[in-house]
Write a structure and sequence with these properties.
Elements: E1 13-21, E2 29-38, E3 59-63, E4 67-70, E5 73-79, E6 96-106, E7 115-121, H1 122-126, E8 130-136, E9 150-151, E10 168-177
Parallel strand pairs: 7-9
Antiparallel strand pairs: 1-5, 1-10, 2-3, 2-6, 4-5, 6-7, 8-10
Length: 180
């Protein structure tokens, strides 16, 4: 497994503001990651000879720390250049490309609770754009049939059955560039 290195001096830093609105209860457990992928596959070791499949991991993830900054508001920072380019395999420099972030919230963090997940692409982060996801309140705090259920939400309330549209809450992620 490659040991991709964090960039010690990132220059493309962005502040994230995550707003949770109309949640049916407290969401006190949270976390997230920023994903980076190798952009140029020629720096990787050769594919597995029998199947021709590339078995080297091409993705790496840096943890995202979220802090509560107000009622239903959370802050975090990411760097689009958070992983250093490098010659990780002795085959030339691997250029690392940011993919995006994924954040999650749970009521208390118990395994049986639903993970309400929201994402923002690297392009949206770089463009200082925001994205809102809608979730059905009935999934809170969890689904007894499926532990740790991942609810990715929907982009528009109209994507829900009409009978559920008054029972939704939202998670919005916004990004803006800041000085490192």
């Amino acid at each position: 497994m490659p040991n991709y290195q964090a960039n010690p001096n990132p220059r493309e830093v962005h502040e994230l503001t995550i707003g949770v609105r109309d949640a049916p209860g407290v969401l006190s457990a949270m976390g997230g990651t920023m994903q980076y992928d190798v952009a140029n596959m020629d720096c990787l070791p050769p594919a597995e000879s029998f199947s021709g499949v590339q078995t080297t991991t091409v993705s790496t993830f840096l943890p995202l720390t979220l802090k509560k900054s107000g009622d239903g508001t959370f802050q975090g920072r990411v760097a689009l250049d958070g992983v250093a380019d490098g010659d990780y395999f002795g085959r030339g420099v691997c250029r690392m490309r940011p993919v995006g972030i994924s954040v999650w919230f749970k009521a208390t963090g118990a395994i049986e609770e639903t993970r309400f997940i929201a994402t923002l692409s690297a392009d949206d982060i770089a463009g200082a754009r925001s994205r809102t996801y809608h979730y059905w309140r009935g999934g809170y705090p969890g689904n007894a049939a499926v532990a740790n259920y991942p609810d990715h939400g929907l982009a528009e309330p109209q994507e829900f059955q009409a009978s559920l549209r008054d029972e939704l809450f939202t998670i919005t992620i916004a990004a803006k560039a800041v000085q490192p």
